[in-house]
Write a structure and sequence with these properties.
globular; 5-stranded mixed beta sheet; Maltoporin, Chain A; mainly beta
Length: 758
């Protein structure tokens, strides 16, 4: 056995050396004993797509096959298949998703609780909720999405929803997996892992997983530059590397126990910018990048770790305790001013073109101020969950009690660099400021959380009430020299009580066929950052959400469908400081907002239902959302995208219609599928003024239809070759006007590769 593992490990090392940064994939979730099923609830909230029907609320599960078949490393594309989710793209590669659920503000996914294996993953979810780090989709074995009453346990942000990424599980037997992908724009991906679980001499079990994931490309945008004036690479691409080690140990004891340790690291180097284009320049060439953005680059590192212990106290009671700690550091060097002037106003033509726009384009002399947005994040916590099952008076109870103590902080220590440019775009001199001279800020939060829920089953009914209590202590200081001085600090404590209930009725259940109805109500909560609350007086955001839906599944006819009505009312909606450094840089309360809509989903396989040799899977996922301001409470910041908002105006970046649909064919060893996504027009600002002459940051985002395709050939049981085309029609489309001017989605992209397992 050990020699076989050595050989497979050697294969792993050779693959990494041979393919350099490339391979993507995933893995099936290994479910072992009944005790491990309980443990999975702490890691995987839903467990599988077949378990969605058991939840008294709206939820979705995207399994490894759905990720694997489409060779996806862009969370934006994956979530298209989940109704109720709206996404504002930013970079075209899925590095910085802006995710909204049921109409909440999408900026930096700040209103969605992001987790990996049930553990908070935003760099500082309380102190700085903007998610500059999101787990890589390409290394995941599944993705869970919770909306409405189903997600009240998973905070701190419970107004929008929760997303849980499932990492590769430790294999129960010897396993080596590898997937290599190569494509246009020098795209190279690599996902490789190997591991096993072995019985030890004392009867216990030890398992391990060693995993490596990487991705790199040179980007699809073209810089207007004089190569001689570059500081580094002239491409607009990125490089990402992610090693991970996971270990499990099951001692041979009277009570079943399991220990798990996980250590992962992510490094990202991306030549990304906040600078877009003028609307005119975008219409002429959407893939252009101005010369002034040539120094823009984000470098980040993230280290994540946890130790988890599970013990089955008896057949009905279990306890799971997790100690976790994450660090995240990033320095986003990006253009802040041109000729000492505001970038957004420069793109809008509010200054003479030669003063700002000419400098930005590299055709006029002037100063380029590049700010180093240097920030360090740190968080740790311990969470424990007690599960207990009992039956009383014909009612089955699944009681869950959990508690968490969490600490996080963010420290800003920024500085600027100034490049003097001549009229030919050449850099003639450089000056660099001192660290902290462009902003030094410290924010800290300690949060104590208690959750309680009870899943009660009686007959065909399932009733799931739950409550969540948060006590939050915050500290803040804003000082360039000494944040330790008492006079420099502000502090405060507050509590929030939220919760709700879901109700499900199993109208019909018979083997492979199910029909159920469900509804729910929940009160949500989203905390403001320490700086926003303590310095600016921003209040926390609350919501009251309602949903009513039905699900139907018929396995024999290969058909399933779901329809959900939802209504969410938001009080004191918290909007972040204007992304991109424009405006005052302060968060605000925006008053009352209401979102309502319908979510539809269906899938059908005509070939499978009729016993054909060829399977023909089809699906549709559609969302209609009406998200409106309930009062004229627009932002006082003229640079904010919420400026000018009036009663009944629509929220920025929330389209009315979002429809995804696809069809596939599987015949013996061959497979093919086509996926399409339609997004209706959306406004880029709260004023809803439409296309504004000369405006780059404000205006409208036109409707779009983007089509993707994929083919695969299962060469053997252990090997598969594949090819994918993104944006088959090479559609040029705008995804955002934020931070500074219009930004494009990715053009036509072709990829192919090899996948195998041993």
């Amino acid at each position: 056995m050990y020699s076989s593992l050595f050989r497979r490990g050697l294969v792993f090392l050779l693959l990494v050396l041979f393919s350099s940064p490339a391979i993507a994939a995933d893995k099936e979730i290994n479910v072992e004993q009944a005790a491990n099923d309980i443990l999975m609830r702490e890691v995987s909230i839903i467990g599988s797509k077949y378990n969605v029907k058991d939840i008294a609320g709206s939820a979705a599960f995207l399994d490894v096959q759905e990720i694997r078949e489409h060779t996806v490393d862009d969370i934006n594309r994956v979530l298209r298949r989940v109704p109720g989710v709206n996404i504002r793209e930013e970079d075209g590669m899925g590095l910085f998703p802006n995710i909204s659920m049921r109409g909440v503000d999408s900026a930096r996914t700040a209103k969605v609780t992001v987790m990996e294996d049930g553990i908070l993953m935003a760099p500082a979810p309380y102190s700085a909720p903007s998610a500059y780090y999101t787990p890589s989709t390409g290394r995941m074995s599944g993705i869970e999405v919770l909306k409405g009453s189903s997600q009240i346990k998973y905070g701190p942000h419970t107004t929008g929803g929760a997303i849980n990424f499932l990492s590769t599980a430790v294999p129960t037997t010897d396993q080596v997996y590898s997937k290599s992908t190569f494509g246009t724009y020098n795209e190279i991906r690599n996902h490789t892992y190997f591991g096993t679980t072995e019985v030890m001499e004392d009867g216990g079990k030890f398992g391990y997983l060693i995993e490596y994931y990487s991705r790199g490309n040179t980007g699809f945008k073209d810089l207007d530059i004089n190569p001689a004036s570059m500081r580094g690479s002239a491409d607009t691409g990125m490089q990402k590397h992610e090693p991970m080690v996971k270990m499990t140990y099951e001692p041979k004891t009277a009570l079943y126990q399991r220990f798990e340790a996980k250590f992962g690291w992510t490094s990202l180097d991306a030549n990304e910018t906040y600078l877009g284009l003028t609307t005119t320049d975008f219409r002429a060439d959407p893939y252009r990048r101005y010369a002034a953005s040539r120094f823009d680059e984000i470098e980040s590192t993230q280290f994540r770790s946890h130790i988890r212990h599970f013990i089955e106290l008896n057949k009905d009671t279990s306890l799971v305790t997790t100690l976790y700690g994450n660090t995240f550091h990033r320095n986003w060097q990006k253009l802040n001013k041109a000729g000492g002037k505001n970038l957004s106003k420069g793109l809008n033509g509010e200054y003479p073109a030669a003063d700002v726009l000419g400098i930005i384009r590299g055709t006029a002399a002037g100063a380029l101020e590049v700010k180093n947005n240097n920030r360090g994040y740190y968080m740790w916590g311990i969470q424990s969950t007690l599960n207990h099952r009992l039956e009383s008076n014909g009612v089955k109870h699944n009681i869950e009690l959990s508690a968490r103590v969490h600490y996080d902080q963010i420290r800003r220590k920024q500085w600027s660099e100034t490049y003097q440019q001549d009229s030919g775009g050449n850099i003639t001199s450089v000056s660099q400021g001192q660290r902290g001279s462009a902003g030094n800020r410290l924010q800290k939060t300690t949060a104590t959380t208690i959750n309680a829920s009870d899943e009660m089953q009686f007959g065909k009914w399932t009733f799931t009430p739950g409550a969540r209590v948060e006590t939050i202590y915050q500290r803040y200081c804003d000082d360039n020299t000494n944040c330790g001085a008492p006079t420099m600090e502000q502090e405060g404590t507050y509590s929030a009580i939220v919760g709700g209930a879901g109700l499900k009725y199993d109208y019909y259940t018979s083997g492979a066929e199910d029909l159920d109805f469900f509804g729910g109500i929940h009160r949500g909560f989203s905390p403001a950052s320490p700086r926003s609350r303590l310095k600016s007086g921003v209040k926390e955001e609350y919501s009251l959400g309602f949903e009513l839906g039905t699900r139907y599944r018929n396995a024999k006819k290969a058909f399933g469908a779901e329809a959900i009505l939802f209504l969410t009312k938001l009080d004191d909606m918290v909007i972040g400081d204007s992304t991109g450094g424009a405006g005052t840089g302060k968060s605000e309360n925006l008053g009352k907002v209401q979102t309502a809509g319908i979510e539809l989903q269906a899938n059908y396989d005509h070939g499978l239902a009729n016993g054909w040799a060829m399977q023909t899977p089809m699906y549709v996922a559609a969302t209609y959302t009406d998200a409106r301001f309930m009062g004229s409470t627009g932002s006082d910041d003229s640079e904010s995208i919420f400026a000018g908002a009036k009663q009944d105006n629509k929220l920025p970046y929330i389209p009315a219609a979002n429809i995804s649909f696809g069809i596939g064919a599987i015949y013996k060893k061959l497979s093919a599928n086509i996926d399409a996504n339609y997004v209706s027009m959306a406004y880029a600002d709260g004023s809803n003024m439409g296309e504004l002459p000369g405006s780059a940051r404000f205006g409208r985002i036109d409707a779009r239809l983007v089509v993707d395709g994929a083919v695969g050939y299962q060469y053997s049981k252990k090997a598969r070759i594949f090819a994918n085309i993104r944006n088959i029609g090479n559609t040029a489309y705008m995804v955002s006007r934020q931070p500074h001017g219009p930004r494009p989605g990715a053009p036509l992209t072709v990829m192919g590769g090899l996948e195998f397992s041993l």
